[in-house]
Amino acid sequence: MRKTLIAAAVAGLFSLPSVVMAEAAAPAAAPASPHTIAGNLSIISDYRFRGITQTFEKPAIQGGVDYSHSSGFYLGNWNSNVSSGAGFPDGNLEMDFYGGYKTTFGDFGLDVGAIYYYYPGSEARGLGIGANSGEVNNKEIYIGGTWKFLSVKYFYAVDDYFSLRGVNSAGVSTGKDTKGSSYLDFAATYDLGDGWGINGHVGLLNLENVHNGDYTDWKIGVTKDINGWVFGLAYVDTNADGKCRGATTYQPYCFTNSNSDNAGVINFGSHTKDAGDSTVLVSVSKTF
Question: Which of 270, 273, 51, 266 is nearest to 173 (CA)?
Fold first, then answer.
């Protein structure tokens, strides 16, 4: 009886349906790649950097690419058109290059890295005594933390802040450096479900050796995801000193529509705006 049962079992093994045998012989699935590359593209009604318009309140086309590794390391590039009057004489393009490391601990996250802002074709000469000639740029290191839908991030300039030099209350360059300028960013992003989300932000800039250079900016917004296209509406405002008429002291955020370098002397455009004035932003973006 025992031999008969064993023989039947062996026979059963060799009479399995062919489809089962095929499944057993199928190769194991390839492991997921540790590398991820993603692109992004957006159009926005006004490019605001830390609450300050970079396009003289005109639209911007923006886009970039990000690489990340499963270990947490990442690299990326992001680009946008800008106005030369935003402090980039003869420039019209911003290119950002960044890299760092991200990790999570339960609901908490950590992000450390560095970012380089570059404005090809611009001229830093004339932005203040001692400013280097060549393209305007900015170098910052940063550290950030997240908890669920809340985040905080601190940026520190390791060189002159966007190639600027110090300015006194009369608007005269002092030649002092602006290294050590910093920006503290508090933000919240909450998913409401069904593609809807809300977001808010408060930022504080400390601009070294520039009279009236410090300010606070804030934003509140809503987004809607429709088949991967994210539509946004946001209110942005600041308390930056950008009064263009009647001011008795230097107003660093009164911008002109254009700046052009002429042997170290900046020729300003004919139109001015308070670059930190309140505005409503409309945007659409796509990640692919």
Answer: 266
